[in-house]
């Protein structure tokens, strides 16, 4: 079988005359998702400060509402993402993709003109309910990829998501510091509108993604029941740390002024490790035994999670965290490609719900546990959650089973 040609960025940056879906659309979807992650994390970094500014409640109530507002979009996305994914069997994924991006642009644009904490919470819920954009991006990537390049292309898509997550916070923080919160929201809305225009112009028409004739529906549910909790556990470990970094660094004797800069460097270091790992996965291709790879990488990440408790200096802590994130970031593309390769692309919505729930619960779980227990207790809990999610791999009845 001939090897598929490599993806070329220039093909994703210019329109083409053909009207059929093809592999260049993978980069279009990746660049669109990268832009969406930039705008999402652009706002997320200064959102807690904006909540404090507009809140009419006392400090304790404001803190509680801040947590709800921060997690509202991901939680709503977890609920509605499978619905949008299932609708791709009847409606073009491109149309749903554009609808989600456009709704996000409109809601972000309205946010600074409605300075009320309760309305802000509602807007964040609507962003999640109308979103699920990453799920649609995964479905588009799967539909546009030759089977032999599915894992590589999903890794490219994951890299785009991670790069957007890396670029968004410093851009958002700098913009809010320079021009204030209201213009920063408008800048984010404007960038999202550009993503809408780019996607509408460059993404090929995509037919509804009906179930593949070769799909095995009887095994789809067991596959998802094994993969979604693991995706959740991986996301939980990837996302929990920023919320508690001030407390962790204070425990290492780092002064508050230096802690802000150091926290940014730590997050940047392990986010780069995540992007580098997913890119390397896209270049190497799928391993011969993906189930064994998932099990090995997951167990290593679980052990490194516990090792964080023994890292007594910021440098050692950062090195351990970078190694842990590298292991975790090699798992997600394999889980996604396993589900997508079965021809059940709509099931990616259900799988991606695990990531949304992890994004929503990670900071809440970390702060709640650390408020009444030691960092070791938190790391032990997170490690145990990942090991439990890996049990289908250990028993060889999940994604790593025979015949994968």
Could you explain how this protein is built, in words?
The protein is mainly α. The protein folds into 2 domains: 12-210, Up-down Bundle (Growth Hormone, Chain: A), CATH 1.20.1250; 215-404, Up-down Bundle (Growth Hormone, Chain: A). The protein is 75% helix and 0% strand. The protein has helices at residues 9-12, 24-44, 47-54, 59-87, 93-110, 117-129, 133-144, 150-179, 181-202, 217-239, 245-251, 256-284, 290-307, 314-329, 332-340, 347-372, 375-389, 391-394. Helix 13 (290-307) packs antiparallel against helix 14. The model is unreliable at 1-5, 15-19, 213-219 and 397-404 (pLDDT under 50).
Q: Would you spell out the secondary-structure blueprint of this structure?
A:
Layout: H1 9-12, H2 24-44, H3 47-54, H4 59-87, H5 93-110, H6 117-129, H7 133-144, H8 150-179, H9 181-202, H10 217-239, H11 245-251, H12 256-284, H13 290-307, H14 314-329, H15 332-340, H16 347-372, H17 375-389, H18 391-394
Helix pairs in contact: 2-7, 2-8, 2-9, 3-4, 4-6, 4-7, 4-16, 5-6, 5-7, 5-9, 7-8, 8-9, 8-12, 8-15, 10-15, 10-16, 10-17, 11-12, 12-14, 13-14, 13-17
Q: Provide the succession of SSEs.
A: HHHHHHHHHHHHHHHHHH
Mean pLDDT: 78
Task: Please count the beta strands (DSSP E, at least 2 residues each).
Answer: 0
| The CATH top-level class label of the largest domain | Mainly Alpha
* Biggest beta-sheet profile: none
Share of residues in strands: under 5%
Distance between the termini: 20 Å
**At the fourth CATH level, what is the homologous superfamily of the largest domain?**
MFS general substrate transporter like domains
Shape: globular
Briefly note the structural class of the backbone. mainly alpha
Total of DSSP H or I helical runs spanning 4+ residues: 18
Radius of gyration using CA atoms only: 21 Å
CATH topology of the largest domain: Growth Hormone, Chain: A
Percent of residues in helices comes to over 70%
Based on the structure given, which CATH architecture of the largest domain is correct? Up-down Bundle
- Ranges with pLDDT <50 over ≥5 residues? 1-5, 15-19, 213-219, 397-404
Q: Give the domain tally.
A: 2
């Amino acid at each position: 079988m001939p090897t598929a040609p490599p993806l070329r960025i220039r093909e994703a940056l210019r329109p083409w005359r053909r009207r059929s879906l093809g592999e260049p659309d993978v980069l279009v979807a990746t660049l669109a998702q990268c832009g969406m992650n930039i705008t999402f994390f652009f706002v997320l970094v200064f959102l807690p400060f904006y909540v404090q500014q507009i809140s009419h409640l006392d400090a304790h109530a404001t803190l509680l509402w801040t947590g709800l507002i921060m997690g509202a979009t991901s939680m709503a996305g977890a609920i509605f993402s499978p619905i949008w994914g299932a609708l791709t069997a009847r409606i073009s994924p491109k149309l749903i993709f554009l609808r989600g991006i456009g709704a996000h642009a409109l809601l972000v644009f309205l946010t600074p003109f409605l300075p009320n904490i309760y309305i802000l919470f509602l807007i964040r819920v609507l962003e999640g309910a109308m979103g699920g954009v990453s799920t649609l991006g995964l479905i588009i990537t799967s539909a546009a990829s030759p089977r032999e390049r599915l894992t590589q292309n999903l890794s490219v898509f994951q890299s785009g998501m991670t790069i957007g997550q890396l670029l968004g916070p410093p851009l958002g923080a700098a913009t809010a510091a320079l021009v204030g919160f209201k213009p920063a929201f408008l800048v984010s809305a404007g960038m999202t509108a550009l993503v809408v225009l780019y996607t509408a112009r460059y993404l090929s028409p995509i037919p509804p993604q009906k179930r593949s004739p070769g799909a095995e529906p009887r095994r789809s549910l067991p596959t998802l029941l094994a993969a979604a909790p693991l995706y959740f556990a991986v996301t939980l470990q990837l996302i929990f740390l920023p919320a508690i970094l001030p407390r962790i660094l204070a425990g290492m004797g780092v002064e508050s002024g230096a802690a802000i800069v150091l926290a940014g460097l730590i997050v940047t270091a392990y986010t780069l490790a995540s992007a580098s790992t997913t890119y390397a996965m896209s270049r190497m291709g799928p391993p011969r035994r993906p189930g064994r790879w998932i099990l090995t990488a997951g167990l290593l990440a679980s052990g490194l999670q516990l090792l964080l408790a023994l890292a007594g200096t910021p440098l050692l802590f950062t090195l351990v965290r970078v190694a842990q994130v590298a292991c975790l970031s090699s798992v997600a593309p394999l889980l996604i490609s396993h589900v997508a390769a079965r021809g059940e692309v709509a099931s990616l919505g259900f799988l991606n719900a695990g990531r949304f729930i992890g994004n929503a619960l990670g900071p809440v779980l970390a702060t709640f546990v650390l408020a009444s227990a030691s960092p070791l207790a938190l790391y032990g809990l997170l490690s145990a959650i990942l090991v439990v999610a890996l049990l289908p791999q250990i028993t060889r009845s999940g994604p790593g089973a025979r015949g994968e």
